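Figure 3 (text version): structure tokens given as input.
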């Protein structure tokens, strides 16, 4: 993520040292409104983040990368977000991990139940999720809400019955 405006971008990109310069590090920030727990439910069960691949397998570095999803700790706005004012993210102890290979996989699922559970129980505020990687020389691109609609980022919430 650089200081340019990311409003209306169709891609969500994550990388570490993709082009071997600090400007090529990219992180993803997502916000979702949580649905109310249905009256007939006994409570929250689980949550899964869905990210659909937008690279089509076009990546210059082969191999699997590890994606980390963490809890955003301070307010942010997609209209003004840039590298210099990005929010802090707690990647531990609530980190959720997924291994993803952009050459062979069309999407990735990340279990974000620990973070979403904290939102439902009011242990923390729903300020969103931060996605990063520590895998050097890897790059992945996913569709945003402005991108390919059936493949845009989504949060699936399940309830106990």
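Below: residues designed for each position.
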């Amino acid at each position: 993520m650089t200081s340019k405006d990311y409003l209306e971008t169709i891609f969500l990109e994550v990388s570490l040292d993709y082009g071997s310069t600090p400007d090529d590090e990219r992180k993803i920030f997502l916000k979702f409104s949580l649905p109310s727990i249905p009256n007939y439910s006994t409570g929250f069960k689980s949550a899964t983040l869905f990210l659909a691949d937008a690279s089509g397998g076009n990546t210059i570095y082969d191999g699997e990368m590890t994606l980390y999803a963490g809890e955003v700790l301070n307010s942010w706005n997609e209209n003004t977000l840039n590298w210099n004012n990005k929010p802090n993210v707690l990647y531990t102890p609530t980190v959720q991990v997924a291994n993803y290979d952009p050459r062979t996989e069309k999407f990735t699922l990340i279990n974000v139940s620990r973070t979403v559970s904290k939102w439902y129980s009011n242990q923390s505020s729903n300020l969103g999720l931060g996605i990063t990687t520590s895998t050097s020389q890897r790059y992945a691109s996913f569709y945003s809400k402005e991108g390919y609609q059936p493949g845009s980022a989504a949060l699936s919430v399940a309830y106990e019955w």
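DSSP finds one helix and ten strands in the chain.
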